[in-house]
Amino acid sequence: MAGGSREPGRSVTSKVLALLGAFDAAHPRLTLTELARRSGVPLSTAHRLVGELERWQALSRGPDGRLRVGLRLWELGQLAPNRLREFGHPWLQELFASTGENVHLAVRDGLEVLYVDKVYGRRAVPIVSRIGARLPMHPTGVGKALLAYEPEWFVTSYLARKLERPTPHTIIEPGRLARELAAVRAQGYALTYEEMTLGSCSAAAPVLAGGRAVAALGIVVSSRRARELPRLVEPLLTAAAGIAAAYVSPPASGYGP
Amino acid sequence: MAGGSREPGRSVTSKVLALLGAFDAAHPRLTLTELARRSGVPLSTAHRLVGELERWQALSRGPDGRLRVGLRLWELGQLAPNRLREFGHPWLQELFASTGENVHLAVRDGLEVLYVDKVYGRRAVPIVSRIGARLPMHPTGVGKALLAYEPEWFVTSYLARKLERPTPHTIIEPGRLARELAAVRAQGYALTYEEMTLGSCSAAAPVLAGGRAVAALGIVVSSRRARELPRLVEPLLTAAAGIAAAYVSPPASGYGP
DNA sequence: GACGGCGCTTCCACTGAGTGGAAGGATGGG
DNA sequence: CCCATCCTTCCACTCAGTGGAAGCGCCGTC
User: Does CATH number 3.40.50.300 belong to domain B83-248?
Assistant: First the structure.
């Protein structure tokens, strides 16, 4: 037959979602053909669906004619509940103001950390660990801070997998990582040295609410200045505690205009 | 027939988008029934589609069982191109740091202003003019700053409509508004006094790139302190110029870690 | 404890909306 | 001019999607 032979019959919805899902941090703009290939949707079908998505501004075309996530989708995303950002952001600002370093807030999603907020200065490179980016847990400060407070079974299964090694400094030996996590629990914060990116190191503290780490607050400095990290731990812990307090009890403080 | 009688035959995609579009700032969480009603999608169809959306975490269920925009959609939204936020945010921080007032960045979308970024202190009420929110142009500072630099025909057609009046102070007379806009162009910034919300007033400056206002930077203070606004104009203009410079020429400054 | 309202879930026979391979354009580089 | 790449359109076929209705579970009320 002409056309009609769609073998397994994926639902339209799943195709739409596959198209959207084809966009990620590494591929934020795609041609129609790339999009179709990445999502596994036949080109002609992709063409039609993308047309509808474009009309709704879920996708839009850049000056180069490539497709990108549209304004409407960004707007919709802002409706996602995010009390952490809402109440945490001022603390990130304060931490940034008092230290002058890049600071960020992350949560765990699946086996990865998801960066939900970030504050950086004008000189910082705003590309690494973008808001919305995902990274593995074991090489990042925030990841270790989060992992340390996960239940036993979760940590065990996390460590049981083959762990990525983005730099030679990354710790991937299960035993050594488990000892690291114990140390994080003991001291209340995590430190990394070039475990994710050569040239930078970090400190991170969990945001503890009801015994669980609902997020982690991290601070990243150039590894040349790694010796300054200890000095940053105290404000880091203060801010993390502040976020936790704001998170558990609603607005709390003044509603002044 | 049983069921099969879908009269006009809306495409599945349009139904999915209608479902997503049913969420807005005023209705961020909905029951399935509300969602179906608001989107015009039959309940049973909504049920099935929402199921697929939930499985993908495009939607998720809050503790109350209501549907909300999911993490995946937020994440996707972060991929939307947003150079303004990227390069502008540090300037918002600086403006906040030097003034201690709520500051925000907005763009025009259609006939409304869309707030793309915001910096506020710990004491501020983080609800009003949320990031991702939309407001009409004429009662807001950023709206006037943007409108003033739109082409003649656009302003004319904007003023030709019946304008909303959120407060008694809102200026809705076309002639008076046109004069206001001329003043904005002449002095390079806009002022409002309780035109959108009783109790607050604002100053706003356009972010000019290539003769067009690509965004507007606004600062909001309690109307009790309206007399302090003039003092805030200079840092406001500096920051707006800074954003414009960062916007037109890419990273520009140091890539130091 | 029966009743009624409300919201969610499941069922099912019918059919037209969606399908996708193929052909046709439109560019652009060699 | 030819070939490669990407985008758009076409169209006969058919099964995925449809939506009204019935059933379920939960409350609060009488």
Answer: no
Q: Return the nearest residue to C12, CA–C1'.
A: B2
Model confidence, pTM: 0.88
Model confidence band, residue A125 (pLDDT cutoffs 50, 70, 90): low
Nearest to A52 among B11, B120, B221 (CB): B11
Pair of tokens at residue A238 = 């203060």
| A78·B131 Cβ contact <8 A | yes
Contact A74 B78 (CB under 8 A): yes
Q: What's residue B253's pLDDT?
A: 38
Share of residues in chain B with pLDDT > 90 (%): 56
User: Are the C-beta atoms of residues A64 and A99 closer than 8 Å to each other?
Assistant: no
A120–B contact, CB cutoff 8 A: yes
d(CA A201, CA A95): 17
Contact B90 A125 (CB under 8 A): no
Question: Which residues in chain A are classed under CATH 3.30.450.40?
Answer: 83-248
- Could you give the residue range(s) of every CATH 1.10.10.10 domain in chain B? 12-76
Q: Is A256 buried (19+), middle (13-18) or exposed (0-12) by CB count in 10 A?
A: exposed
Do B130 and A78 form a contact (C-beta atoms < 8 A)? yes
| Number of other CB atoms surrounding residue B13 within 10 Å | 22
Contact B146/B106 with Cβ under 8 angstroms? yes
Give me the B residues in range 148-187 that sit within 7 A (CB) of strand C. Answer: none
Closest-CA residue in chain B for A63?
B81
Tokens read off for A192: 């990394």
- What would the pLDDT profile of B193-219 be if each residue is shown by its tens digit? 999 998 889 999 999 998 899 999 999
What is the domain class of A12-76 according to CATH? mainly alpha
A77: tokens are: 């995303």
Q: Tell me the per-residue pLDDT of B91-129, one tens digit each, with 9 for 90 and over.
A: 998 899 888 889 999 999 999 999 999 988 776 655 567
The ipTM, to two decimals, is 0.88
B94's CB contacts (< 8 A; 6+ apart) are: A122, B239, B242
Min distance A130 CA to chain B CA atoms (Å)? 9
